[in-house]
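Suppose a colleague, Dr. K., hands you the sequence of a protein chain of 143 amino acids and asks what its three-dimensional shape might be. Before reaching for any lab equipment, you can write down a predicted structure in token form. Begin with the sequence itself:
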Amino acid sequence: MNVTERLEMEWELKRLNDDYVRYADQQDFDSFLKLFTEDAVLEIGGIERKGHDAIRGHFGDREQMVTRHICTNLWYEPVDDNTAEGEIYLTVYRCSGPYTEKDGPIPYDRPDWIGEYHDKYVRTPDGWKFSERRLSVRFEKVA
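The predicted structure, expressed as tokens, is then:
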């Protein structure tokens, strides 16, 4: 992989991660699922979900909430021309309840989680997708 190809890969993976948090926060789960291969693994909270139906089930089981996922320190490493690995730092804010913009800012004092995503990506005819995403929580909000 030459420098130009690597920069293109990194840009496309950054966009994949941006889409992931945008769709998760907007609760656009149809678009969210398109970011994963059919047999992808998503692990959150120590629970592994494999495939689109299982991943969709994660969101169907949650209570109504407002979330904001803030991703930083994006690191990508190509394995070969069609696979890569990544590590992304994550800060999550969430609040239960059906809030709207009309309700004004949600009172909040600190994030719920700070952790890392450990990712595996694969290049498909439709672009880069997650083949595996695992969340490791390093800090958690204390009541």
